[in-house]
Give the backbone structure.
Amino acid sequence: MPAVGDICYRRGGGVYLTLPPRARLSDGTTRTDPDQYSLDASVMSDLGYEVSILTEEDIAAMFPPPPPPPEPTPLEAGFDTGLGWRLAWQADDVALLTGLYVLAQRAEQLGVDQPVVVTDTDGQQHTLTFAEFDQMMLAYGAARAALSAEPTPEVLP
């Protein structure tokens, strides 16, 4: 990786770290040793190169930071529980949460006071009462239904 202060060559608004291995001069002759011809001011002038020093701006232009990742789709982002964590809503996730809900509801009907443990999209577990889980699942189901009702962009073959 080049560093600020390294030798570079400027020509026509561009910054180059190396010179071409073969250069044709205006008189038709060629030079094939950049280490040698870079020391000859008249050759460098004829080729249009100027010996220079790399700046921070040069390096930033040569190696720009990668673009930020795209925003996740609503399906990828999951459901915001409003409790500082998210639930996934891919088909497998919906099936697991639905199964958990059915079991928790049955335990509630039988009078079993059993907390419900839900795993979020980051793999963290959260313990809820059945009443809290019930409210969250109603909101989860409504949000997932609304997402399913949104028009999807057509997929091209």
Remarks:
- The radius of gyration is 32 Å.
